[in-house]
Amino acid sequence: MITCKNCGTVVPDETTTCPGCGAELSAAADDAGLGEASAVGEPAGGATTPLDAGATEPLAGSTAGLGEGGESAFESAAEEAADEEAAGETASPVSVGAATTPLAQPVAASRAAASPAGVGTGAATKALVVAGVAVLVAVALIGWQFWARRHRSVTLSQDDVAEIVKGMVPPQELSTLANSPEERKNITKQLRELFALAQEARRTGIADKPDTARQIEEMRTLILAQTYAQKQQEAGVTNPDQLYTKQEVDAFLKEPGVDQKFDQFIKDLQDIGMIPSTQDIQPDQREQIKNDTWGPMQVVARKAKAAGVEKERRTQLLMQVQEAQVLARKYSEANKQQIEAATKATDQDVDAYIKQHPEFDESKTRAKAEDVLKRARAGEDFGALAKEYSGDTANKDKGGDLGWFKRGAMVKSFEDAAFALQPGQISDVVESPFGFHIIKMQERRTSKDEQGKDVEEVHASHILIKSDTGQPENPFAAPKSPREQAKAAVEKEKRQKFIDEIVQRDHVNIPDDFKVEAPPAPAMPQMPPQMNQGAPPDEPTLPAPPDANSNAKPKPGATTGAKPGKTK
Q1: From CA 205, how far away is CA 144, in angstroms rounded?
Q2: What is the pLDDT of residue 34?
Q3: Which phi and psi (to 5°) does residue 405 adopt?
Q4: How far is residue 349's CA from residue 538's CA, in Å, rounded to a whole number?
Q5: Rounded to an integer, what distance in angstroms lies between the CA atom of residue 427 and that of residue 441?
Q6: How much is the pTM?
Q7: What is the pLDDT of residue 452?
Q8: Which helix (H) or strand (E) holds 528?
Q9: Looking at CB atoms within 10 Å, which of 124, 296, 328, 466 has the fewest?
Q10: Parts of the chain with a pLDDT under 70
């Protein structure tokens, strides 16, 4: 464009005569006017025009990084800038007269001074600026969305919790839950902690890992299948064939890529501990899992999607819970050492706890045992003392008689002391996880074991002095001394504090109570084996393989009512 130096009129390059004053125009005239008028069609003097006002429109009008029609902010800004430039080039000449408008000269001069080589800010430059700003906004928005996804708060209403409970608690247990505010409070506490740990997993990037996303999707599939089965039950369906047929499952298993998906499913089961990672799954077991568990689950989940179950509030809530279970487990595994270090009880912690809880002070219990020992050694009837003071309810009424036993039948400290005695001799006070023992040797003998070898046996009685810790004894766990119980109590408190801090930090808002309706428990249509309805909120609900643990042995420490003092 050329600017007439006589009157300031802007005209196209090919114009030779100024339409404003009739003066001859040349390239020199344009060079002379560069300091007073902006290039690429911007009016001289910096006058405010719709083009200037519109320069900020792409930024002001963009939302969520997108322009109208779904284009990116970058694309939208570039198109608007191109429109501006086209409008500037085709504008009719405007006579603003740098010489006749007093305000125009200082403004134009300031623009020229601010522009490199005296060139004003044109539409092309504006396009770059606007596009750059739009890109920065889009990047910032993406970053904010990424941050928000990792730091999003969790808020559930009473109705939400009620829906979760309906979908996860068996109908026969709803009546109990409806009448127990304490149990309902415990459920909301578990949910609150579960979601908080899941939030930590998101915050630390665990949720972004491919294996995590895949396992979450598998859980979503399971929830869809379970929810659909429950809805069918509520509609009166009782025949499993109405949920899925063998033909449907067979057709699904013939689809491309199914074998690879199933292999990954098995690996994920091992990863989350549903199948021991060291256990080999035999081919017939794999086929049984595929045909009777995994295949039907996939078929039913597809039916659920087709029926719109995925969009229902209860389904979405249950999916959130299952997703939180995956993330919480992943977080705990990834931060195992950190959690153990933060919740480990030191000797000083245990000493302080015992000081505040005298029932765990073993010194008083030992002193009581020493007193009973003095009386036994002074000649008092051992059986009578056992009936009066022994905490071993299995044999105290028999005077503490344990009968005959070989090595390996009792805990080591008790066994070593018993076999070191001679008939009629009474031991010193012996400490074991059960408490403090006073042992009296009755007689000894040699017998044959199963291999025909000679083994030594003893017949002994004992008096057990137990600490009154006020804690119920778990019959399926190995006994703990009062100090061990105190240590466990300290670590439990530390774990709870650790989780409570996470709950507060991650803004998990779940009410303490909710309403529970206890409906009658109608017959439930059968799902594939192991596809359980109603797992508690703190347990993942992936189907376990049939007979995968058929050879499992009882857990160490399990007992069937063995006498106190004997190994579990």
Answers
A1: 15
A2: 34
A3: -155, 150
A4: 29
A5: 8
A6: 0.55
A7: 83
A8: none
A9: 124
A10: 1-152, 278, 468-478, 519-568
